Write the structure tokens for this entry.
Amino acid sequence: MAGNYRFVMDQKDIVRTLITTVGSFTQDRLINKEQRIQHKEQCAERLAAEDGSTDKDMEVRYSDQAVLANLDWGIEALEEAINTSNVETKHARLDYAEKMLQVCAMLTSDQKTAGVPNSYLSAWAHLNLSYLWKLRNNVHNPVLHILQMFIIDPFFARIDFAPELWKELFLPHMSSIVGWYSEARHRLMMEAIPDSSDLSFTADFDQFFNESLIFSMRPDQVEKLKKLEQLYGESLDENTRLFAKYYKDCMNSDSTASKKVMAPMLPIAEPPMTPLHEVSRSIPDYVKFGPILPKSAGFSPVLKSKHGRREGNNRMMSATSVYSHNTDESAAWDPHDGVPEENEDDSEYKEIGSALQPKKLRNRTHSPSNFSPVDTPKTSSSKSSSPKPEGNSRKESKSILRLLSCRITDSSDPTSLPISPCKSNDHSISSGESDGEVIVCFSNTKEMQKSCRKNRGRAHSMSYDNVNIRTSEHSSQNESSEGNHSCVSLPLSEKLTPQSRPPKDFVCPITGQIFNDPVTLETGQTYERKAIEEWLNRGNTTCPITRQPLSSSALPKTNYVLKRLITSWKEQHPELAQEISYSETHRNSFSSPLGKEIVLVSPSPKSSKVPGCKSIDDYVNQRSKRFIRAAVATSPTSVISQAAVETIINGLKPFVPCLCTSNNLQECEAAVLAIARLWKESKGDAAVHSYLSKPTIVNGFVEILSASLDREVLRTSICILSELIFTNENVGETLTSVDSDFDCLAALLKNGLAEAAVLIYQLRPAIAQLSSHDLVPSLVQMVLHKNEESDDLPSVMEPSDAAIAMLEQILMGGDEKSRSFNALSVISANGIPRLVKCLDRMEIRRSIISILLCCMRVDKSCRNLIATGIELSYVLELFHAGNDSIRGICIDFLFELVQLNRRTLSNQMLEIIRTEGAFSTMHTFLVYLQMAPMEHQPAIATLLLQLDLLVEPRKMSIYREEAIEALIEALHRKDFPNQQMIVLDALLSLSGCFTSAGESYIEVWLLKMAGFDQPYNALIKTNLLQKHEKDLNETMEGEEKAAYLWERRVAFVLCNHEKGSIFKALEECFKSNSLKMAKSSLVIATWLTYMLSTLPDTGVSQAARESLLDEFINVLQSSKNLEEKILAALALKTFINDPAALEELGKYAKGIYKTLRKLKRNSVVATDILKALMNLSSVNAMELWSCTDIVELDSSTNGEVLCMLHLKGCLITSHSDGSIKVWDSGKRGLRLVQEAREHMKAVTCLYVPSSGDRLYSGSLDKTIRIWALKPEEIHCIQVHDVKEAVHDLSANSKFACFISQGNGVKVYNWTGTPKHITFNKHVKCLAITGDKIYCGCSGYSIQELDLCSSTWSTFYSGTRKLLGKQTINALHIDDGLLYAGGSAVDGIAGKVFSRSSKAVMGSFPTGFDIQQIAVNNDFIFTATKCGIIEVWLKERVTRVASIKMGSKGHAKITSLASDKDGGMLFAGSSDGKIQAWSLD
């Protein structure tokens, strides 16, 4: 676009050129990292300078801080995207950066944020957005953002952000303005240069434009030059904006349009005239297009004037603009006055009297490259440099007393004369109206700027204090020299010269104070020991300045070399060292009228302007200003005349001796009342105060307190003592010198004298004193019954306020036991509702919140009481107005308050917090999260996350991301275990599972999910007793739904943050030496892992498995706590649905198999895991099997063991002699507990239905008996004569089905009517389920009989063999499967059938005939005639082992039983032996 200034250009060519030019610019910036960093530092320096130039008392709102934080985060995220090579990370950081930068890009340009013009912030944001879209390979959007930058703030866009791009895109169109400016400036210079008529138009004026020329210029010439530069700057900005809008229209128009567009003609600021320089296409070297505005100048050059136009129009004015005499403007530094050029050289000056004269000029001839007419030369004042202009000696002009970014100000402005062009860097700040002389010199402008920024606070305090002192001392001297232009100078010992100011190496960069104990880190940077210790204690691991990681948190020894140098410097400058020490102390604290340091609630003086933003101490001070005024009123114009004061004191004298010495109590009481009357008449005069503050008089009042019973006298004495203490702290020392005095006051307080609380509070007793007198009940009663203040003798503060303040001291101090006791006292006295109502008063708000917080921590059930009555806007108001300590209390309070057992109420509280107040609470919390101390971060992060989760989680939320990141980062801090524990507790609270007592029951709930119900049932039973059943029924459905949705949201965002990074953090906490931390980590990890199975699959389960699988297995193997093992098993169950995770879990099968089998008794998840492991082909079941022979009993005296079954820890056996025995089947063996002999002949069969409430026995004596089951006992309740011998039996509540002689089966309906069902097969065994009976028959078949219809069908028909008899000998039904065993046919002795489909699910490949079958949860046991028991894996019907019974001879196994859990196996033989094994 360069070349022609007016041309017709195709619109497509314009767009193409813009894309190419801007693309090249952004590409160069993206490649050059150093340039980006340098540019960011320069812009940040300008921000810092503006912060330094603003009023110290101005408070920066959190909403403004949030905007600046967004800009910073956006630029940081953009840098991360540029530097990363990971595509996913790059896209994520770009999305995040775009959201952050858009906040600043959309700011209203005519307003300010934290004192910074929004136009600057918005332009900076658009510049970075252009980089962002370039990274996305978008060629169109970078151009639009660059053009928008020039539209919003053309001035800083061309001098700060993109000067080279401005020259390429806009400068070719500015030739007429540049030519006009050059011609006009030439004429001005011709007027100022002597004998200029001999010079040609093209002469190089820079060789003449030097110091002598500036001194020789007349005021009217200076004014013309100033207006010329002002108009020139306006024209450049307006036309830059005009062309930027035109380019933007071209970019946004239809790209296919073929219409050619005529570029608009550039307007000329002054009446148009032909610029001679336009003839040649070159621009003179001395013509610049903007001042090299120092970054320390802030943004004042671009602030808008009262007419709505930028004063940036004046930003081109020269240094001579300091001669502007405007009596209407207040004293303020104009950035156009004395703005230095960045690359100026140094020069030196010396002082002559009260003026400054050049001592040495290094170069009087300025080259075009070193000087620009639009740069701003420096100025100073001199009495002798020019005559005094008449009528102007008292006029004010804009002062440069601001010292660039420093806040050194004065009440008046100088009428200054120029001294030095821009080649000089020395400055003199003068004021003709100052009452004292102040001379401030700097030999190096750049050094001065940096020093001022770093030591802004200290420079401020020194200059203010000293200037004010000198003003009062030299007022008469300056009044006599009214017309002189004297310099504003500091006192002689206060001159801020580089020689007297401490070297920067002596000052800590953190504290800004001279080193006391310097330590030098490995990075080479030196810090104050206490400051760097605090930096490291907050969790930082890098150097504050270099940001390099520190290898160790241990600090080195003191840098004694530097310390000796500082000591030497202090000895050479004792006065300055003392003053600096004073200013530092003065800056950090101030004294109350009592001489004590008062810590304000507000972070800055301006905070007190917020309604109610005061602490109790401030409130006391405000109520007692009358005493302060009286203390300083010593002139005849005071409240009362000196004569009246003497009269009052004389009136006191008769009563004082009576008070101090009289033994008559009534006389003393009358004296007290008389003194009070005179005291009131004195209106708190200082002399009366002083008279009554004598120790003897104070002791007299104290004696009255201990002796009098008159309430009015006691109250009057206390009020007088309270006011005396307020103005004279020595009175308080008199009272506290004797313990009995405090005991007396405590007794009065307990007796209901409310004013005693005020006096006790003023004495500032130690926590031990307050606790020893058990004052909490009395203080609570005082709060509950507010005292009416009398107008006769008002107290310095309300007694209830003093009571609340002392309650806070008592509850927040002492040990944990005492705090708990005192908090419970407050709760039991019903003090919480009253305290909640008092929150509307700001002066006691912090104390109340502290008390309520302590109460909630001690008794969490009071959360509901507080939540139902509190106005949260008061808490948020205190948060916005308070300092870090108060904000931390507010956050902890809100964090505790929302942990309610009702999810709906908790959500309501969160919604109020989110929407309440004038500021965005979430944005405010986000900013505070970035700046909060480490101990406050978990609570604020948790609270912020909950506020964000009130709505359905979105794809991206800065609040959520920052909150979770803060929590995870804290979990990684191994060196801060307390911090880790706080975060784990916070994560537990996020689940939202709270009892009515306020305790988290997430662990109990997880145990219930794992099938271990006992803890949950016990907890629910307790909670139900604490609730009304009606309320519970009405709210249960809504509460359950709200809790379910909340839990899913929380788990979803936690698990999916950064692809499951929280699991890695929990893995580190698992390895902690703290058992409490490890347990909390287990609960949280189990909860999140369990929730993964209920959430949509987002791919984070792999991260959970990689981080936590080993930890869960370790807990399962090593923990001795049953509940911990169940939690680990619940988490492992989540992994079995993932084939990869299950395969990895199979590697640990051998180690966890035994533990899981034991857990089956308490948790169903152990069974699920075992099934999954047994189905793995990689798991060798034979390696998992083991058994131990426990006992072998001989019951041969009862004959054969015909049948046995296991039920509820007991083994029941039947014998051939008709006896039934009950055994206790413990781990140590079998113990006989009962032997029943009801049957006359052999008991052939025993059966217990699924209900487990009855035992049926069949015998050869042709009877069936029904037994009632009791613990370790059976009792026969019915006998049924069935007329036939019973060989096998199955029964339910309606029928009994048994096998007798012949084919078929007999059905007995308990009414005495037997029914014979025959199907021409001999039945060997029975199995019943519901109304169906399965019969194992000869011919290797199974018949199915329907008891309701008495019909039968063939379930399975075996293959007929020519040789031998094939019979089904045993049937067993379990979990929908039918197990059948019998004769071995073709190597198969039994099969497993599905009852529903009749399909064969498996078979028993063995050569032995199966006589008996027993089944438990894991294994199938088959017994043979030869005394061998084969063990089969239930899931795969695979043989894993065989057991040999210890019977001798040819005894065969006649009965077999196993407990359901699979812990024991029992077998009975034909020789009367019973053997038991423990299955490991």
Summary: The radius of gyration is 47 Å.
